[in-house]
Amino acid sequence: MTTTFPSSVPALAETAEQMTCEGRGILAADESIKTMSARLKAEGIPANEITRRDYRELLLTANRLSDSVSGIILADETFGQHLNDGRTFPEAAHDLGILPGIKVDTGTTPLPGLGGALITEGLDGLGARLASYAERGAAFAKWRAVFDVQTITAYSARANGHALARYASLCQQHGIVPIVEPEVLCNGVHDLATSAHATRLALAGLFEELDQASVDLNGIVLKPNFVTPGLGAPPAAASTVAAATFEVLGDTVPRAVPGIAFLSGGHPTSDACTFLADLNATTKRPWQVTFSFGRALVSDALRTWGGDAANVAAAQEALVANCRQAAKAIS
Ligand code: 13P
């Protein structure tokens, strides 16, 4: 068995750059056990430890995935599982030229008295968990804060920004690049201006707290949403989405941040890729832009697979086609 963890830990900025440049992006395959099980069941596939493992092995071992994918975000369950050939997922990822990452937050709970706004948890014992993940090959981590346009306030943005900042500084202490993800959900019928306002609040609260915590901005990757109308509202042109997204990010994200990797948020693959391509064409950008899509890359593969080993190759082709489409948007 080949285990090829780097012999010396690369600098954080170097890893962050590797994650976000060279026309590649990040594959988000870190759904919790609950979410992954629901997605399997929705496709008529039994949900258990083995099917979740088989599905993640299918994704990671797709032919030439590393041409378009620089990193893969794994869930804790997958991080400790083994491929059929006996390697752990992080070992196999390193062997394939893909950086393994780990989702480390433990989910959300309501902030009391705030009308449904959520706070993301998982800081207790995080230092020890990060030390263990680093030892087992994690190059980066992810923590996701979740905001709804209806309930976001400056306070909920700062509270989540504070948790993200504490997570980020702990990651950096352990030589792990933190993906900081303040996601403003695009479910709903709100307009573009509402999304822009909420995203601005979320990012302003985040960068205020990252600054207070002395997080090294050269060694993080930001994972925001595109600024779009709600999925239930009339859509905006991709050029309008790109311009609104650039305006908000330009006002809130310091130039020191090396790379921004967008989530897809439930937008269809082609829409998410067009938003990214238009944003990538914005010449005044100080940061690299790329993708860290989940559903926009994997939904077709999951449907094609359907839990049947005979469909693995076709499912892998569907995944790689979507990853190539996303990579093309940034090259
Ligand atoms: P989607 O691209 O499916 O929104 O997921 C990305 C992600 O990792 C959300 O945390």
From TrEMBL:
Keywords: Glycolysis, Lyase. Pathway: Carbohydrate degradation; glycolysis; D-glyceraldehyde 3-phosphate and glycerone phosphate from D-glucose: step 4/4. It comes from the Bacteria. InterPro entries: Aldolase_TIM, FBA_I. The keyword Cell inner membrane does not apply. GO terms for biological process: glycolytic process. The keyword Cell membrane does not apply. Its EC number is 4.1.2.13. One of its GO terms (molecular function) is fructose-bisphosphate aldolase activity. PANTHER family: FRUCTOSE-BISPHOSPHATE ALDOLASE. Belongs to the class I fructose-bisphosphate aldolase family. This is fructose-bisphosphate aldolase. It comes from Saccharopolyspora karakumensis. The lineage of its organism: Bacteria, Bacillati, Actinomycetota, Actinomycetes, Pseudonocardiales.
